[in-house]
Amino acid sequence: MFRTLRRALCTAAAALLLPLTGAYAAQAADAPTAAAAPGAGYWHTSGRQILDAAGQPVRIAGINWFGFETSNLVVHGLWSRDYKSMIDQVRSLGYNTLRIPYSDDIFKPGATPSGIDVSGGKNADLQGLTSLQVLDRIVAYAGQDGLKVILDRHRPDSAGQSALWYTASVPESTWIANLKSLAARYQGQDTVIGIDLHNEPHDPACWGCGDQATDWRLAAQRAGNAVLSVNPSLLVFVEGVQTYNGVSGWWGGNLMGVAQYPVQLSVPGRVVYSAHDYATSVAQQSWFSDPSFPANMPGVWDKYWGYIFKQNIAPVWVGEFGTTLQSAVDQKWLAALTDYLRPTSTYGADSFHWTYWSLNPNSGDTGGILKDDWTTVDTVKDGYLAGIKAPLFPGGGSGGGGGGDNGGAPACSASYTVSSDWGGGFNAEVKVANTGTVALKSWKVTWTWGGAQKISSMWSASYTQSGASVTVVNAAHNGSLAAGGSTSFGFGAAPGGAATPTLTCTAA
C-alpha cells in the first residue's frame, strides 16, 4: 500500500538520436478567432471546472518532466537533447501542460545544474546559469510554445520524498518562504498557472485531525494563503494524504477528507484538488486482485477523489499516474482510468485534469512516454492517452518572418531546426506559426533540398516528396491555429549534412 520511491537512473550516456515514429493524438476543435482560443491569462475555478481569464473552460492534459528535484537540479534529458527541442516535442504530441517537480535545494545559494550537454550548439543559452535561471528559460520557452506550467514542490531536498511537508533540515518556514519566492518570481507570467504545494503527503500526515504538526489540510491552507498573498491569481493545487479514517490508499491519493474538511483559502476560486494513482508496476493494491477488476475501479476512484468532481465541489487533477504497461492488469487499469477521466470528444473541458508520469524514460517503476534514447516515442503508451488529450493553448509568440497583418487574410511562417545529425542521417523540427490576425484552418509547408536528402519518417504532419521537392501538410490535430499560435512537426531523413532549405508556408 506504500508507493515505491521512483528512483531516477541519471546516467548521462550518449544516445543515438533516432527518428520518431507513430501517430499522435488528435486535438479538439478549431478556434474560430484569436479571442475564442481557450487558455489566455490566469485561471480560476468555478465548481468542478477550471476557467481561463475570459471565463472559458480549459482542460489540463499534460505530462511530468522531472529532474529539478534530483541531485542534477535540472530537468533530465538535457544530457542528450536541447531543451527547446524537448518542449517542442511535448507540444507536437498534444500535451498542453508541464508539471515540473523541484526540491528546495534549487533555492540554495550557488545551486547549479549538472548533466547539461552544450556541445554542438545544444542548450547554448543555459551555460553558466543557476538552476532557477534554467527554470526561467524553460518557463519562458514553454509559454512561447503555448504550454502552461505547474510547479511541484516534490521534495524538501534531493535526498528523497518526505511524509510531511517539512523535515528537521527543511522546516515549514523554509517551505513557505520558497513557495512565496516562486510566486513572486513568476508574478505576471501566466505561463505558470499554479503551484502544487507538496508531493504525496503520507502517514503520519492526516486530513482534518487538527494537529498542527501533521494535519496536511491545515498546512495547505497556511501555504496556499502565503502563495496567494504574493500572487492572488495563481491556482493552488492540494494533494491528498495516504490514510483517512482508517482507509488507506496511494500516497497523496486519498482525498476522502475533503467532504468534511475542505481547504479554505483567502481568495475564492483557487483550489484544485490533486490525486495520484498508479498501477501494479509501482505497487500492489487490494483492488487489483478483486474478482470484478477492472469494473470495480470507477467505484474505487469515486471513493478516494472522484466524488469531488462528481458532486461539483471543485476541480480534480490527477497530477501523476503511470505504468510500465507490461502486465495485462496494468493495461486494463490504464484503459479504465483514461475512460473514467472522461474523453475530451464527449465532455470537452468538463472533465478531470491530468498530467501523466512521465516524459522521462528513467522513472524506474513506470518508464516514460519517451524511450531510452530520449527521443523515440512509446506510441503504445501515448496512444492510451489519445482520447483525453485536449486543445493546445495559444503561444506567446514565436519566431519566423513574413505574414503580418494582411487585412484579415490567413498567413503563416515556418522555421527549420536540425536537432541531431550523425552523418548517415538527421532529425529536424519545423515550427509553423500563425503570423496573421485570423485563425488558420490548415497550413502547408514546402521546400526543395539542395542535395539528395530523402525523408524516412515524419510525425505530426504528412508529406509527399518528388525528387528534391517536399510538400508537408498539417495533421488533423494541428491544422487549426489561433492568431499568434504555433505548432511543430518533425522528421527523420538521410543523408546528414544537409544545408538548411528555404521554407515556404501557405495558410488557409
* Strand order in space, largest sheet: 4-5-6-7-8-11-12-13
Radius of gyration: 22 Å
Would you identify the regions where 5 or more consecutive residues have pLDDT less than 50?
A: 1-35, 397-407
Mean pLDDT: 89
The fraction of residues assigned to DSSP E strands is 15-25%
Largest sheet: 8 strands, parallel, barrel
Description of the structure:
- The structure is a single chain.
- This protein has 508 residues and is an alpha/beta fold.
- The chain contains eight helices and 21 strands.
- The strands form five sheets. Strands 4-5-6-7-8-11-12-13 form an eight-stranded parallel barrel. A four-stranded antiparallel beta sheet has the order 14-15-20-17, with helices on one face.
- The protein starts with 43 loop residues before the first strand and ends with a strand.
Summarize the structure.
The chain is α/β, with parallel strands linked by helices and 508 residues long. It contains eight helices and 21 strands.
List the helices and strands and how they pair.
Blueprint: E1 44-46, E2 49-51, E3 57-58, E4 61-64, H1 83-92, E5 97-103, H2 131-144, E6 148-155, H3 172-185, E7 192-196, H4 216-230, E8 235-239, E9 243-244, E10 247-248, E11 271-278, H5 297-310, E12 316-322, H6 328-340, H7 344-347, E13 353-356, H8 379-384, E14 412-421, E15 426-434, E16 443-448, E17 454-459, E18 461-466, E19 469-474, E20 486-494, E21 504-507
Parallel strand pairs: 4-5, 4-13, 5-6, 6-7, 7-8, 8-11, 11-12, 12-13
Antiparallel strand pairs: 1-2, 2-3, 9-10, 14-15, 15-20, 16-19, 16-21, 17-20, 18-19
Helix pairs in contact: 3-4
